[in-house]
Amino acid sequence: MKHNTTVLEGPRYTLLHLIGLFKVPLFFSVVALLGYEGLSETNPRLYAYIMSIIGIVNMATILWVVARSDRFTIKDIVVLLGIPFIMLLSYYTAIVLGRHHPQNSYYFSLFLGFSLPAIFIGYYLGKAYRRTRMVDIGRYVEIIMLVISVGGFVTILIPFMQGARFTTLGGASYQSASYYSALAFGLNLYFIVWGRNHVRFRLLTTRFYKIFSVLLLVLQFVMVVIPGGRGAFVLAVLYVLLALFEILRVRKVKKILQGTLFVIGLVVVAIMFLPRLMENPLFASSFNRAIAFIDTGGGVNWDGTSGRLPYYENALSLISEAPIIGYGIFGFRNVYGKEYPHNLILELLLQGGVVYLAFWTVLLTVLARRLFRNMRRDVGFRAYLFIAAYPLVMLMFSGTYISTGLFWFMVAFLATCPVNRAVLD
Question: Does 4 map to a domain?
């Protein structure tokens, strides 16, 4: 089959680095497939060792390749060494100023184990894109999507069909299970619409697989709902809107007609099957939980946000006392407590006030502009938009950017790769 593509398969060790990038959802999916439910809880050291070894291998291979090839530029030093230095400086500054909290060591170790390797991976793929102006990660990301989907099918969908409530995805919580399913949903949707722009394994280009991937899309959405994750539900809906936006933005009549028919098909399927699914008490309770944050009169129902309101109120109260420079990247926990505010904007304001928030706003705006400019010129670059949506949405509802590897990957990748000025599509 002839592929409409102008991209290459990528640099050496691409598969290894993508495994490192998606190592958390892959770990829980594989563990679930092997039947070791709760391995990360019953044997947390083993989980930590596996994650650390993968990260060390990622960074070691990247340093080996880089050391034998290009020289460092100022931008390279800032991306690869500047971010870890700032985190280390903030960590010890909190100790010196008496703002150290026991949880700081935990989250700093999470940064080293998850975010630092992701920075290296983003830097490496960005450098590869700088050299070739075309890097395709599609064929490997699609396989990763399938592995995550199968793990969810075994631990989410099969128990549901047997009448059992969701318990765990290989040790991952209901929120994580929903987010992993939403990520798989978004990536599958991307490959259904734009998969022809990538070099793919032959089996994944057959008509049978195309039909299968559409059916899988429906099952993936069901797997988003069953665990009851609210932020993941928002992410899945956002993926559909992103796909529609991109289809309309290209302004190709054929693509718009295909996209319209596809969306109409999904709506028809939803109309046909959602009422039947809602007759199932397990699905109905999960669906109602996933949308519990939506108030019937408009706005947000705070009673359906899993207790987020106290986190937000505490954060806003502390921000009002130090609105300009905050309390430090790690120092804020000394006044806030061991938790995090469950919202990226509030976390940035707590850490560095409006100054730090302004810095990140400018940086993310510049990186987003680079992302969209490259999407207009590179047929394969749109995949990064769907990857970037996952950490950004998740961080608005849960988690901390300190330990979110995909967030740092996108920052390092977009900061390193150039704007591709050659119009390709």
Answer: no
pLDDT per residue as tens digits for the range 149-179: 999 999 898 888 888 888 777 777 888 999 9
The pLDDT tens digits of the residues spanning 264-278 come to: 777 777 777 777 778
- HSE-CB for 69 with a 13 A CA cutoff: 13
The count of domains in the chain is: 1
Return the number of other C-beta atoms located less than 10 Å from residue 9's C-beta.
15
Q: Which residues pair with 300 in a beta bridge?
A: 294
Range of the domain at 313: 14-416
Asked if residues 364 and 407 have their Cβ atoms less than 8 Å apart, the reply is no
Q: What share of the chain is helix, strand, coil (3-state, %, to 5)?
A: 75, 0, 25
Q: Looking at this protein, which amino acid is placed at residue 296? A: T
CB 108 within 8 A of CB 330: yes
Is 6 inside any structural domain?
A: no
- Within a domain: 143: yes
Yes or no: say if 57 and 16 are a contact pair by the CB < 8 Å rule: yes
Whether residue 422 is contained in a domain is answered as no
Q: Which residues pair with 294 in a beta bridge?
A: 300
Contact 132, 8 (CB under 8 A): yes
Instruction: Identify the helix (H) or strand (E) that includes residue 304.
Output: none
Residue pLDDT, tens place only, 4-61 = 333 334 456 788 999 999 999 999 999 888 877 666 666 678 888 899 999 999 999 8
